[in-house]
Amino acid sequence: MADTGIFRINALQTWQREAIQKAAQLLRDKFGDEPDDPLVRSAHDGLLEVLDPARRTDRLQKEMSEATRKAAADEKRDRRARERRGKERRKVDIGPPPGQANRRKGDRRKAERRNRS
């Protein structure tokens, strides 16, 4: 199925495809099947992604899902840390406010509400 519009990728010519395959093979021969060096590994994977664009799409989707999962876990951990109070919020017990209390002296109701016998 061919892509249309701006996302269309021109097909590689035979000599371009062969050059990319030989370069990837050279990297595998020199550094092993799975290169340990991250720079060599990214160059090798980049060459293979040029040959097979679906491989790049898979890698990007996997990276995005891992990043999303990690971000969600970090947010959850941060929220839990904020909800837990590790120490008392009030530093000093300052007591009641100064001056007289603004309460009325007596009860505000006129009579006893409950009948006591």
Layout of strands and helices, then pairs:
Elements: H1 14-31, H2 38-51, H3 53-83
Helix pairs in contact: 1-2, 2-3
**CA-CA gap between termini:** 94 Å
User: What percentage of amino acids are in beta strands?
Assistant: under 5%
Oligomer: single chain
Average pLDDT over all residues: 77
Low-confidence stretches: none
What is the number of E strands? 0
Quick one: overall form?
A: rod-shaped
Helix content: 40-55%
Number of DSSP helical runs: 3
Q: Quick one: biggest sheet?
A: none
Helix-strand pattern, N to C? Answer: HHH
Structural class: mainly alpha
> Over the alpha carbons, how many angstroms does the gyration radius reach?
36 Å
Short description:
This protein has 117 residues and is mostly helical.
Give an account of the 3D structure:
- The protein has 117 residues and is mainly alpha-helical.
- It has a domain at 11-80.
- It is built from 3 helices and no strands.
- The protein has helices at residues 14-31, 38-51, 53-83.
- The protein starts with 13 loop residues before the first helix and ends in a 34-residue tail after the last helix.
